[in-house]
Specification:
The structure holds two protein chains of two kinds. By secondary structure, chain A is mainly alpha-helical. Helix content of chain A is about 80%, strand content about 0%. Chain A contains 17 helices and no strands. The longest helix of chain A has about 35 residues. The two termini of chain A are about 50 Å apart. Chain B has three domains: about 80 residues, Serine Threonine Protein Phosphatase 5, Tetratricopeptide repeat; about 170 residues, Rossmann fold (3-Layer(aba) Sandwich), CATH 3.40.50.300; about 70 residues, Helicase, Ruva Protein, domain 3, CATH 1.10.8. Chain B contains 19 helices and six strands. Chain B has a six-stranded mixed sheet, sandwiched between helices. The relative contact order of chain B is 0.09. By secondary structure, chain B is of the alpha/beta class. Classes of the chains: A mainly alpha, B alpha/beta. At the A-B interface, helix 1, helix 12 and helix 15 of A face helix 18 of B.
Chain lengths: ~350, ~425
């Protein structure tokens, strides 16, 4: 097989995600012709598939050095730089690719994706995504980029529409599934967890929806902590005016009953919405992830304290004396968690 | 009395008098003479354990292990240095046969094979159709898999009338999936043997071609060959590569290859008798869903890492042609839970290397012992964890319609889920 045939074979192997075999074929191609810029580009794709961003950049730079007038090397360098979290350099490389091929939708797409991560270029990103979608209206990636850039440039009202269009074209577009789920109200934990689980069904190895699913578990536990904190505060308030000689007061009993009902109802609602596999995954994560373990302990401790404060005869003074600071702490931690951990 | 009878009598005698070195050596000589050198080796090894200076034993051991005996060093009384084991022998330089010259010499004497003189184009298919001599009985252990294969594939194929009576369709193929190195290809060959069919294995390399349209043509040719060779098991190895999910493919020529595969599978069912399609993959989740629809690869069997019985069989298979002594295969099988067949083969290879290196260093040929294998098993790490990580994600998030219930069951049983 001649070198062009081998290169075509390597490209097909990359497409089939058989990166190790493709790398082996490319080794022969590059040994026979080390000045083949296209082969270096394909090698960059191989390294990307294997998760080696630095090597991908190296191969892309070789391609650029050999053929500075070809857009592909610049575009691949931009992807590698974005993976290496160097957004400014990634934008520069993508801009060069656009300059060399202003009529190629992929160059505009890449520019849009990296520019959207640099706040001062958000409007440019939106325009570039629009051009990409205009040149390739059939591409789910282009519509995804348009949604991503819309979000970055503050056009929140049209974000969901673009993601939905991407999903219409490719129902298994993992990033669109994930980002569309991110748009749901933060209080709808069950529905959001189900959305991330849908993204994981499309690609079970995807990292971002998995992390978001774990965040949902953390947020659920923090919500329980928040409920417990509120119950503790309520018990403390009721306890101030209690006559301890009369044991349980109706006020604390009411707080306790409301707490139990709220926790049970909320848990049932969330659990019902989450698919079984995702629940099993979260159960296994809760005992292995240190952050989730701490959150679980906090939630369990707070709930136990709240129930004792509400239902034990001495609960009122317990709430006033010892649990009030803990309740406040739980509220602070819970609110902080809600504010900080939005995916 | 035949040699075999004599050997059997001597074996009984040796069992009765295990300390009788002369008897044992005589038996070993007969075994070597009967081309049963592997059986002779343990007997000679025992004699050499009792009397390491036995010249007859040393000579016999060398013969049994397939190389000439060497003299001992008279001065030191120890074995000669390893460097002298195989002294270089001056040989005349190799002279290659000059095919070109021969063709020129004979060119005018021998007429061309075919009238148009183009032997290559009219030569048969470039693909090999084999006759499998294996059967499911040759597959060690894996009782559950064999049962499933029998129920899902073999019984209906063997009893077409009964299948018709019960309304069981004979259409469709079988997809074997599971971690790499666990015997899917071997099982496919065994199935071909059970059916008494030819075996045609197809891999990505047989199909993938750089020229547009050629990959589809290759597929068509392979299916045509299978039809001509009927009854034939057409085995699509790594079907996730040939039949990748089309949504993953941006290259239109790869998509058309998948379309061609679908077309061929449908026509196999519609037009041809006696072509059984088996496919294997490590990544069933990457296989295009259309390939798994009824009438195509609609039956799936999970091929898991070998069970204890199968591991014993794999150890025996990989050790049977090697000089081994006192190997407790059961203990090895117990110690290798979670190993694939390929991992076990690697462990046997490692143990052989260890014994070889030791023999080369010491200058004393020794057998592969249990210590070698235990050390090798400790050294070789099971290679399946990456596959199970992915499989676990699939079982958790993508088990739509119970597609991977077998896998879920296995993962739960082994506390991986």
């Amino acid at each position: 097989m001649d070198d062009s045939g081998s290169l075509a074979r390597a490209e097909a192997l990359v497409e089939l995600r058989r990166y190790a075999e493709a790398e082996s074929v490319l080794g022969h191609v590059l040994a026979a012709g080390p000045d083949d810029d296209r082969a270096w580009c394909v090698l960059a794709l191989v390294h990307d598939g294997l998760g080696h961003a630095a090597r991908m950049l190296e191969a892309a730079n070789r391609a650029v050095a050999l053929a500075p007038d070809h857009e592909w090397g610049h575009r691949l360098a931009s992807i590698a730089l974005a993976r290496l979290e160097q957004p400014e350099e990634a934008v520069r490389a993508a801009a060069e690719a656009v300059r060399l091929d202003p009529h190629g939708w992929r160059t505009h797409l890449q520019y849009s994706l990296v520019a959207a991560q640099v706040s001062r270029l958000a409007q440019d990103a939106y325009r570039a995504a629009g051009r990409a979608a205009g040149l390739a209206p059939h591409s789910s990636d282009a519509h995804f980029a348009l949604g991503f850039a819309s979000d970055a440039s503050g056009r929140h009202e049209e974000v969901a529409e673009h993601y939905r269009e991407a999903l219409r074209l490719d129902p298994e577009h993992v990033n669109a599934l994930n980002n569309l789920t991110n748009l749901q109200p933060r209080t709808r934990l069950g529905s959001r967890a189900a959305g991330y689980a849908r993204a994981l069904r499309a690609d079970p190895s995807a990292e971002v929806p998995r992390e978001n699913l774990e965040l949902m578990a953390g947020q659920f536990l923090l919500h329980l902590t928040l409920l417990a904190g509120l119950a503790l505060v309520a018990c403390a308030v009721v306890g101030v005016s209690e006559d301890l000689r009369h044991g349980l007061s109706p006020g604390r009993l009411l707080v306790g009953a409301l707490l139990v009902l709220a926790v049970a109802g909320y848990t049932a609602k969330v659990v019902r919405a989450v698919p079984g596999g995702a629940l099993r995954y979260l159960r296994s994560r809760v005992v292995r992830d240190r952050r989730l373990v701490v959150t679980l302990l906090l939630a369990t401790g707070s709930l136990t304290c709240a129930v004792l404060a509400a239902l034990a005869p001495w609960g009122g003074s317990l709430a006033i004396g010892a649990l009030r600071p803990l309740g406040l702490l739980a509220v602070v931690v819970g609110v902080q968690g809600l504010v900080r951990r939005r995916p | 009395m035949t040699d075999a009878d004599l050997i059997a009598s001597l074996q009984r005698a040796v069992e009765t008098a295990p300390e009788d070195a002369a008897l044992r050596l005589h038996l070993a000589e007969l075994l070597v003479a009967a081309d049963r050198a592997v059986e002779a080796v343990p007997h000679v090894a025992l004699v050499l354990q009792q009397d390491p200076s036995s010249e007859r034993g040393r000579t016999l051991m060398a013969t049994a292990l397939g190389r000439p005996a060497r003299p001992r060093s008279e001065e030191t009384g120890v074995h000669v240095e390893p460097a002298d084991i195989d002294p270089p022998v001056a040989r005349p330089p190799a002279v290659r046969f000059d095919w070109s010259a021969a063709e020129e010499d004979l060119g005018e004497l021998v007429p061309p094979m075919f009238a148009d003189g183009d032997a290559e184009e009219t030569d048969g298919s470039p693909y090999d159709v084999e006759v499998s001599g294996l059967g499911l009985a040759d597959v060690g252990g894996m009782t559950e898999v064999k049962k499933r294969l029998e129920a899902a594939f073999l019984a209906p194929m063997r009893n077409p009338e009964l299948s018709r009576l019960y309304g069981k369709s004979l259409r469709g193929g079988l997809l074997l999936y599971g971690p790499p190195g666990c015997g899917k290809t071997f099982l496919a060959r065994a199935l071909a043997g059970e059916l008494g069919a030819h075996f045609l294995a197809v891999s990505l390399a047989d199909v993938l071609d750089m020229y547009i349209g050629q990959s589809e043509r290759n597929l068509k040719d392979l299916f045509e060959l299978a039809r001509r060779s009927a009854p034939c098991v057409l085995f699509l190895d790594e079907v996730d590569a040939i039949g990748q999910k089309r949504s993953n493919l941006r290259n239109s020529s790869m998509r058309t290859t998948v379309n061609q595969l679908l077309l061929e599978l449908d026509s196999v069912n519609g037009e041809n008798e006696g072509v059984f399609v088996l496919a294997a993959t490590n990544h069933p989740w990457d296989v295009d869903a259309a390939l798994r629809r009824p009438g195509r690869l609609d039956r799936t069997v999970l091929v898991l890492p070998p069970d204890r019985e199968a591991r014993e069989a794999v150890f025996r298979h990989h050790l049977k042609d090697r000089p081994v002594e006192r190997i407790d295969v059961r203990a090895l099988a117990r110690a290798t839970d979670g190993f694939s067949g390929a991992d076990i083969a690697h462990a046997c290879e490692t143990a052989a290397e260890r014994a070889l290196l030791d023999s080369a260093t010491s200058g004393t040929v020794r057998m592969i012992g249990m210590d070698d294998l235990t050390a090798a098993v400790a050294e070789v790490k099971p290679s399946l964890s990456a596959w199970f990580d992915t499989a676990r994600n699939v079982a958790l998030f993508a088990n739509e319609g119970g597609l991977y219930d077998d896998l879920v069951g296995y993962l739960r049983k082994h506390r991986m889920l």
